[in-house]
Predict the structure.
Amino acid sequence: MHALTLPEPGHHDEMLLSSGAVRSHYQHFANWLQAQPPEMLARKREEANQLFHRVGITFAVYGDDSGAERLIPFDTIPRVIPAAEWRQLEAGLAQRVRALNAFLDDIYHDHQIIKAGRIPAEQVFANAQYQPLMQGISLPDGIWAHITGVDLIRHADGSYYVLEDNLRVPSGVSYMLENRKMMMRLFPELFARHAIAPVDHYPTLLLATLRQASRQENPTVVVLTPGQHNSAYFEHAFLAQQMGVELVEGRDLFVRDDHVYMRTTAGHKRIDVIYRRIDDAFLDPLAFRPDSMLGVPGLMHAYRQGNVVLTNAIGTGVADDKSIYPYVPEMIRFYLGEEPILHNVETFQCRNPSELDHVLANLDKLVVKEVHGAGGYGMLVGPAASRAEIEDFRARLLATPANYIAQPTLCLSSCPTFVESGIAPRHIDLRPFVLSSGRETTMVAGGLTRVALKEGSLVVNSSQGGGTKDTWVLED
């Protein structure tokens, strides 16, 4: 028998009510869990670790002098979402991504939202992620972000909120797929008892989305990786293999007569769609950083001529910048004429003097983030910070206030998690992956659930010690 620790007061737990009663959509799983001997989960976790090592599901941490690759810790207790709840999330995610694509197409063309005074011009044109050379470029169907990862959290009130949008090179989908495969291998009996929506067709949906991005009749698609030293290289190789397309590095490609070609043992082959996992600045040394060895000289010119599709498009980063995030609800109203289904977290923009004053007066209560930051780096979690850390951030804010935003410290929902002390609640978030083509917006049910394994921690990023769970969306 497994004793389930009661959730903290004032927190939303995915599995348990505050009384300790099990939520209805978790009941079958809880019954199964209570019937398992205590040593079973430990044995299964060790089996999962060995299998993940064998397959090579690892990631590297930048700045780690040891250079060692690590496993992302995998938890065997799933996060379960009922069907009706997912339908609401799905509608909100599709709405949000449609508005973000409309915004990107607008700011690189007519600037209607800026002319209407809904977003300050300097927030867009002075943004480091804005790419002036994309101005006036028309992309097929006006789609700039074909793959979007949207980070969701559930607050103490039980409502979901969007924490951030990831439109540049969103990662993590390979872990979603491998987590499901692992759960089905370890616990096949659970999938016989539950009607769980599948996720294994994601590579098929992704390939269809990439092909639909091209105007060619039978386009050739490749995945462009920076190479095996990149922290997400496993994912790049995994997705290429799952889609049945070539994994290439910049040196495998060249541009001739404004078209992109791949070197193969059978000769040169024209490439129509590049699913790139390289940041803008490194894509073409002739257009961006001249010292980049990762990109393809001349790629930007071929792209501007419409002879190759890059997914996601160059310049999408301006829409996932944390200083643009507060305006997404207004984008939904402006472009779609709808009220947002999913809400933002209240956000203070430190570039505004009055909001900066509020942040400085409440640093011990807020989470402060760099507007270009990612991976849990460059942030302050006020309630967990030392006095020295708070004062260090105070100095940073006073020096460059426009580089930061701040948000209330939210009570991320918790989910029972198997840790060294047994089964205990740990905080989680959710990253669904939304695919956009000119025809439709699609996604597999669920996404990547990340879990903060340290007790009380709100930082779920793998680079900061977080783990992952399988995400079950129950079918009706």
